[in-house]
Write a structure and sequence with these properties.
two-stranded antiparallel ribbon; 3 domains; Alpha-macroglobulin-like TED domain-containing protein; 286 residues; 1% strand; Terpenoid_cyclase/PrenylTrfase
């Protein structure tokens, strides 16, 4: 098991040890070495690489991650939220949410960048059909209309996931955040997590795939994260997701990656050849 995953498990159990032990785990990780091997001054590269590193506790200590954070703050963060173009006009729910989560996991939940991203969600994100957003810019329509009468399901899923992570990593409870998490989870339960209301077919490409870490598409990994953190498995509307997990299992609580996203900056933590240790941990830990 890679030392980065050992550190993740210890962190979630509250047993990370001393600073020197944490630094040793990071320095000995083959995964950290792989993620730090290359660099490109490109927004998408920095976004996806930062998301990868955010899965590793204390990664913000690494000079490489500090460089990533500085770059994203300079090139992607705006006064109203995170934009993949660096322009306010092109803030979209999925990228804003993923970067809010990444910054939060990397110890920056109280940063101006996270506050701006969270304020955008509170002001403009919708969690129901036929709700009108007050967001005035048209760049969001480039992708088919993320916030039209039928809001983008990926945006709702990514936002719900990010808010869960934010609530978990901040000491003071925010009633508005908790209300939005409930709204998002309820909307997803109505869809049995991944099914269209009209014909029960998968809502979007890769939503029934297992991948790790996350990218802009919604996947089974995101759905399980939400179901675990919100304790939704007892709701009958989660049965379809549980059945999907059972079908994909390759052993007792073992699953392989189905899909590896191909984009600059993104690196899967493991191959598709054998059961994933990261997925086993994420799927079996609340």
């Amino acid at each position: 098991m890679d030392t980065a995953l050992q550190l993740r498990i210890a962190y979630e159990q509250g047993k990370t040890g001393s600073d020197s032990e944490i630094d040793q785990a990071l320095s000995q990780s083959a995964l950290v070495e792989k993620l730090s091997r290359d660099w490109e001054s490109n927004r998408f590269f920095a976004i996806f690489r930062l998301i990868c590193f955010s899965e590793i506790p204390f990664a913000e200590r690494l000079p490489y991650v500090k460089k990533l954070l500085d770059y994203v703050t300079e090139e992607v963060a705006t006064e109203q939220g995170f934009s993949y173009t660096g322009k306010v006009d092109f803030i979209v729910p999925c990228y804003n949410a993923m970067l809010l989560e990444a910054y939060t996991r990397l110890g920056k939940a109280d940063s101006p960048e996270v506050h701006a991203a969270l304020a955008w969600i509170k002001e403009y994100q919708v969690f129901e059909r036929n709700k009108t957003t007050r967001w005035p810019y048209q760049g969001i329509c480039k992708h088919g209309g993320c916030l039209r009468s039928v809001p983008c399901y990926i945006g709702i899923g990514k936002t719900t996931r990010a808010l869960i992570a934010y609530a978990e990593h901040t000491s003071q409870s925010d009633p508005a955040v908790q209300a939005m998490i409930h709204q998002g989870a309820e909307y997803m339960l109505k869809h049995h997590f991944y099914q269209r209301l009209s014909n029960q077919k998968p809502i979007s490409p890769h939503i029934t795939d297992i991948m790790f870490p996350q990218a802009y598409m919604l996947s089974v990994t995101d759905l399980v994260y939400i179901a675990n953190k919100c304790d939704l498995w007892g709701d009958p509307r989660s049965n379809a997701l549980q059945e999907l997990l059972d079908q994909k299992a390759v052993g007792e609580q073992q699953w392989k990656l189905d899909y590896i996203y191909g984009h600059k900056g993104y690196k899967a933590f493991e191959t598709r050849r054998k059961p994933s240790e990261w997925i086993h941990h994420c799927f079996t830990t609340n």
